[in-house]
Amino acid sequence: MPAAFLAYIHPLAAALTVALLAYVGSLGLRARNDRRRAHQYLARHARLAPLMYGCAVASWLAGLLSTWLLRRDLDLGASAHLRVGVALVLALSGGALTSRWMRYATARSIHPWFGAAAMLLAAAQVFFGLQITP
Fold first, then answer.
1. Is 38 helix (H, G, I), strand (E, B) or coil?
2. Neighbour tally for 11: CB within 10 Å
3. Domains in the chain: how many in total?
4. What is the pLDDT of residues 17-69, one digit of tens each?
5. Among 8, 28, 17, residue whose Cα is nearest residue 70
6. How many CA atoms lie within 13 A of 112 on its CB side?
7. Residues 6+ apart with CB under 8 A from 52
8. C-alpha span between 111 and 105 (Å, rounded)
């Protein structure tokens, strides 16, 4: 496959990952606003969140690899897109860690903030990613 085609795999996969992130985040938010269906939303949120987390980490690694292997015009590690990606993975990691202790009030109160930070960072990630898309 030509390198020009391969360079678009990361942006396309990342777009799907951001869409999944938005959906998983919306489930958590809807659970807070609709107490009657909260159990359904939280069950779906808990089921899809690990998949979304894995996609986000894989997308970050794919972006790093595609920059290193395919994008000689970019300096590895110099872009705001990479730094925001690191922050996004860290925010999602915080959410993943706190999800293991949801029976504690402190974890339940912190967990949504990791999700909100991840959503804002994902928006920034899209913005900075579009600037360096081939």
1. helix
2. 18
3. 1
4. 999 999 999 999 999 999 999 999 999 999 999 999 999 999 999 999 999 98
5. 8
6. 12
7. 17, 20, 21, 24, 92
8. 10
Which residue reads 């777009």 in tokens? 15
To the question of pTM greater than 0.85 for the whole model, the response is yes
* Cα 77 to Cα 83: distance, rounded to the nearest angstrom: 7
Helix (H, G, I), strand (E, B) or coil at 47: helix
Cβ neighbours of 113 (radius 10 Å):
13
Only one residue has tokens 């489930």, namely 27
Terminal CA-CA length for the chain: 16
Residues of the domain holding 66: 3-132
Nearest C-alpha neighbor of 10 from the set 63, 51, 58: 63
* DSSP-assigned letters across all residues of 90-133: HHHHHHHHHHTTTTSHHHHHHHHHHHHHHHHHHHHHHHHHHHH-
d(CA 2, CA 5): 5
